[in-house]
Amino acid sequence: MADLLIFKISHNIKSKIESEILAKLEIEGLLNEVPKPIENFYDIMNYLKDFEDFRISNRIFWENAYGKVKGYYLFSDINEHLIEKLIKRLAYFSKIYLLTKKDLSLAISSKLYEKFQREYKVLYRFIAYSYFLESRNEKEIDRNVEILFKHPFENIYYIPAPQNLKMGKKL
User: Fold this and answer.
1) Number of C-alpha atoms within 13 angstroms, CB side, residue 126?
2) What pLDDT score does 46 carry?
3) How many beta carbons lie within 10 A of that of residue 48, not counting itself?
4) Alpha-carbon distance 64 to 4, whole Å?
5) Rounded distance, CA 168 to CA 164, Å?
6) Which of 23, 63, 146, 156 holds its CA 20 to 30 A away from the CA of 32?
7) Partners of 124 in the beta sheet?
8) pLDDT tens sequence across 107-132
9) How far apart are CA 152 and CA 98, in angstroms?
10) Are 33 and 16 in contact (CB under 8 A)?
11) What is the pLDDT of residues 14-30, one digit of tens each?
């Protein structure tokens, strides 16, 4: 089975041309393969169902891009060198998810990825360098990375439904 690569478009990309054309061309240029668009991340969650107890959906659904296309995915054989190249070169994407059966030995900082393991599958979540270009200094980068990894779990809140909400109630 080939590895699954999921590319999440950065949430600050607002142009249709950037998200639907240039981002796709960027992946094609680096991988020589045509990715499939993701209009809703829910559509690809069945591939990640083994990792539900890690609350992967919270990470994927947090801070999505504007517009119709939220990201891209493709199946391909991936190695450590290619992942490191993608992390350094991608401009339109903030995160890359890799579902594989291989345990990669990466020569990158542990601040750049999270690893979730099951018996026979490994899911990696990588942060592209473009995310750090938004930061101004090392302290801010460290703080942003900490927020990126912890915020969806420690600071999550739900807006309470108003008392006069009629949806779901019997009249």
Assistant:
1) 27
2) 84
3) 20
4) 20
5) 11
6) 63
7) 98, 115
8) 787 778 888 888 889 988 888 887 66
9) 20
10) no
11) 888 888 889 999 999 99
- Residues 118 and 55: their CA atoms lie apart, in Å, by 14
Angle at 35 between CA 151 and CA 123, to 5 degrees: 40
Closest CA to 132 of 97, 103, 91: 91
Q: What is the mean pLDDT of residues 140-150?
A: 71
Cα–Cα distance for residue pair 10/101, rounded to 1 Å = 27
Domains of the chain: which residue ranges?
Answer: 3-134
Q: Which residues contact 76 (CB under 8 A, 6 or more apart)?
A: 2, 3, 5, 31, 33
DSSP state string for the chain:
-PEEEEEEEPTT---HHIIIIIHHHHHHHHHSSPPEEES-GGGGGGGGGGGGGGTHHHHHHSSPPSSS--EEEEEE---HHHHHHHHHH-SSEEEEEEEESS-----S-GGGEEEEE-SS-EEEEEE-HHHHTT--SHHHHHHHHHHHHHHHHHS---PPPPTT--TTS--
